[in-house]
TrEMBL record:
The keyword Transcription regulation applies. The lineage of its organism: Bacteria, Bacillati, Actinomycetota, Actinomycetes, Mycobacteriales. GO terms for molecular function: DNA binding; DNA-binding transcription factor activity. Residues 11-147 form the HTH marR-type domain. It holds the Pfam family Staph_reg_Sar_Rot. Keywords: DNA-binding, Transcription, Transcription regulation. Gene3D superfamilies: Winged helix-like DNA-binding domain superfamily/Winged helix DNA-binding domain (1.10.10.10). This is HTH marR-type domain-containing protein. SMART domains: HTH_MARR (SM00347). It comes from the Bacteria. GO terms for biological process: response to stress. The keyword DNA-binding applies.
Length: 162
C-alpha cells in the first residue's frame, strides 16, 4: 500500500473552501427551486436535459449519460417525475427493454417558470462576485481537472440498457 500524498495546510484550506462554496451553491439553488417552483435540483436537471433534446425526449440510457448518473438513480428519479406528471415514460419501439423519457407540457411549463429565478441565482452566486480574469483561470482549471481523467466516474455507457 502506498503512502497517501497528504495535503499541506494551504491545500487543505483551499480544499475545504471549495467544499464549502459548492455546498453553499448547491443548497441555495436547491432552496430557490424548491421554495419558488416546487422542483428539486435533480428534477430541474432532468427537465433541462429533455428540453434541450431534439424532440424533448431521450432514451433513458442517454439521459443517464447526459446527467452523469447511474441507471438506478436515473430510473428512480424518472419514476418519481412521471408520477408528478413532469415527464412520461414510453416504451421504445423495436427495443422491448428500451425506455424513452418525454418532457410533458406540465414539465415544460414548470421549467419555463423556474428558469429565470434559477439563472438569477446562478448569476448572483457565481458570476457577480467574479472578475473576468478569474473566470478565465477557473475555466482553465476546471477544464484541466475534467480532462485529467481523475474525475471520470461515468463507467461503461454500453452496459446501460433502456
Amino acid at each position: 500500500m502506498t503512502t497517501p500524498r497528504w495535503l499541506n495546510d494551504e491545500e487543505q484550506k483551499l480544499w475545504r473552501l471549495i467544499l464549502a462554496a459548492t455546498r453553499k451553491m448547491d443548497r441555495t439553488l436547491d432552496e430557490t427551486l424548491q421554495a419558488d417552483h416546487e422542483l428539486t435540483s435533480s428534477e430541474y436537471s432532468v427537465l433541462v436535459s429533455l428540453s434541450e433534446a431534439g424532440d424533448q425526449e431521450m432514451r433513458l440510457r442517454d439521459l443517464c449519460i447526459a446527467l452523469e448518473w447511474d441507471r438506478s438513480r436515473t430510473s428512480h428519479q424518472i419514476t418519481r417525475m412521471d408520477r408528478k406528471g413532469l415527464v412520461a415514460k414510453v416504451k421504445c419501439e423495436g427495443d422491448a427493454r428500451g425506455v424513452i423519457v418525454e418532457l410533458t407540457p406540465e414539465g415544460e411549463r414548470r421549467l419555463k417558470q423556474a428558469v429565470p429565478a434559477h439563472v438569477e441565482t446562478v448569476r448572483r452566486l457565481v458570476f457577480d462576485p467574479m472578475e473576468p480574469e478569474q473566470a478565465d483561470v477557473l475555466r482553465d482549471y476546471l477544464t484541466a481537472a475534467l480532462n485529467s481523467g481523475a474525475c471520470d466516474t461515468t463507467g461503461d455507457a454500453d452496459a446501460l440498457d433502456g
